[in-house]
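Posting this for the archive.
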Amino acid sequence: MSNLHASATAASTGAAVTKPPQTSASVPISTPLPVLRTPLLDRERQLFAYEIVFHRGEPGDEENLLRSVLSTITDGSLTRLVRGNRAFLNLPPELLPEDCDVLLHQPRLGMVLQPSVADDQSLMKHLQQIAERGCQLLLDAGAIYPEGSRALQALLQMVQLVRLDASRLSPEILQERTESLHARGVSVIAGQVNDHATYARCLELPVQAIQGRYLLLPQPVAMPVLTGNRMSMLRLMGALQQNNPGPVELGNIIRDDAVLSYKLLSCVNSVYFALPRQLKSVQQAAIFFGVRRMRNWIETMSLCSMSDQPPELLRAALIRAHMCEKLAAGMSNDAPETAFTVGLFSLLDTLMCAPMDFLLSHLRLVPEVSDALTDRSGPYGALLQEILTWEAGEMTSDHATPKRIRHMATVYLGATQWADQVYASANVKRAAA
């Protein structure tokens, strides 16, 4: 198993999850606990639950990891990370806490179990006790036949959900196992759904939720056809990128979009940003934040208005944008704003349901941004690729130093908090507008 579980797909919101302060004088401050949150979406592409995967760290550090995980539960950090939604903690079997009272006081938190726990009699007794007390359990069966032995049959009596690996099972076997589990009253999660063809097949099965990379991938289309709203959005983004508009020009570009202007000003004036004074116009905001930053904000609010896309997809774009911005700090004066655009637009083809080349032909972005988006080349392409590696759960100690992993954890958690706040603000203000 990789340090960040292979089922990791996309991430989205939360507050910083940190280890409890160390008492040793050599480590006087808290350090970030690297976590990755991946969504499980229901059949309507709304959030069903999150899976929380913890970076295991160096061998022999299991006790510290477990203590840190329990601390994030008791101090409420984990609840804030998942915004009070249902979540399942994915920990190695040997790290399952013996004292699960902390979980029992958090009815929205459950545990992901591996099939191997069925062979550990003492652990099975422990799981039986916490199951009887109401803790939700999800069996990650993968490609293993979940009804194939007495031990697994006993485990099935305890769990409420079973996740099947759609990438390793044939369509026929996936259907057979899904229907068998459904008939037993066990909810099924289709996992590792990494393309749209598999996603379409899963929608025909009695599954409770679907999880995988499909969410972040553009749907293949023979001929891109944009709706009027999306074409208007593309023209807006193109205008923002051309001719280096100043504060007055920025105000003129969105002058006729009252809803966008309202959302934009409501968001930047929100309590979250704690501005010293209220900004009353786009021109004022552009002077206060700077033109490049304001252009980022307009693009962000514009994408957040896409009500026909899953919220978790929009949050993923916001998280990438913020991570790119923070990782680009120190490169050059305008690097953070340019990097923000790279991260935000990295999912533009998925959001717009059109090929990236087609979209870029309308946007006329600077070469370093286009290169990053098309083939991950150049300095911004390297930043984006590092973020993709992180969100796929593939940044392990074999590919990055512990210091870099901790830095990515800090950047990721800050990005999820920011993305959640911005998306929530845009949604509330859209309804009000």
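The radius of gyration is 23 Å. The chain is about 50% helix and 10% strand.
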